[in-house]
Write a structure and sequence with these properties.
UCP010219, 0% strand, 244 residues, disordered N terminus, transmembrane
Length: 244
């Protein structure tokens, strides 16, 4: 995979270069967990649905889902891999397990994640409409540009705005399907539809993000700028000291 530390050289024609596309892809992979992170996110929910479909035992299904989520974190810790995606996953599953055990219903397992996802959809959409796209806040540190895109890189701000709007509309469309099922469908049906809609909307949203950012101007590496300023300041002090 392409390193995120590799500098991006813009094409004079303004078209996205192969390096720019590759670095954008690498950053999105890092930010959203890649294939492994996606599998780890889906596995506990899939296990819950499978067990509940077979025996309708909410408690057993919830405990099994929680146990596999914790196991995934332990495996990452033992392998000394990054655990940020696994920890976020186990937190979400833990809340779902708590709701399922408290309410005694399988739908309780799904409700926290559905509320969170719908809330994200609203947040992404509103952030794009007010000109402070949430995706730029999330991905800015990954690209080492932080919030420089807001005032210094209007092309990237426009790309982040489009991408955030895409995420928002995709999420809202997804939960416009799921909430009616939550209210009027049965728990097993809801669970399988949730699993079916777990990956395709995410892939579509990430694809739109890649398309918009790959065509945007390269990020401004503010970390490198800060390091250069510190080095220049240190050199000035050294020169002043020797001058005395």
């Amino acid at each position: 995979m392409t390193s995120l530390d590799k500098p991006i050289t813009p094409d004079p024609s303004g078209e996205p270069t192969a390096d720019q596309k590759a670095v954008t892809q690498a950053a999105l992979f890092d930010a959203f967990g890649g294939v492994r992170g996606t599998v780890e996110t889906m596995l506990p929910g899939l296990l819950f649905v499978m067990i509940y479909t077979v025996n309708k035992d909410v408690k057993m299904s919830a405990i099994a889902a929680g146990a596999v989520a914790v196991l995934l974190v332990i495996v990452r810790l033992l392998r000394k891999d990054t655990v940020k995606h696994a920890f976020s996953g186990v937190f979400g599953v833990g809340v779902g397990v708590a709701f399922a055990l408290f309410t005694g219903t399988a739908k309780g397992f799904y409700l926290p994640g559905m509320i969170y996802g719908a809330g994200l959809g609203v947040a992404f959409t509103l952030s794009a409409l007010v000109g402070f796209p949430l995706l730029g806040v999330i991905l800015g540190p990954v690209f080492k540009e932080n919030l420089s895109w807001r005032t210094r890189n209007p092309g990237r701000k426009k790309a982040y705005t489009k991408a955030s709007l895409a995420w928002g509309l995709i999420f809202l469309a997804k939960y416009a399907i799921l909430f009616p099922l939550y209210w009027w469908g049965d728990a097993t049906q809801l669970g399988w539809v949730l699993i079916a809609l777990k990956l395709p909307p995410m892939v579509l949203a990430v694809y739109f993000t890649w398309v918009f950012l790959a065509k945007a101007p390269p990020p401004i590496d503010v970390i490198a700028e800060w390091e250069a300023e510190e080095a220049a300041e240190k050199a000035r002090k050294t020169q002043a000291k020797h001058a005395k």
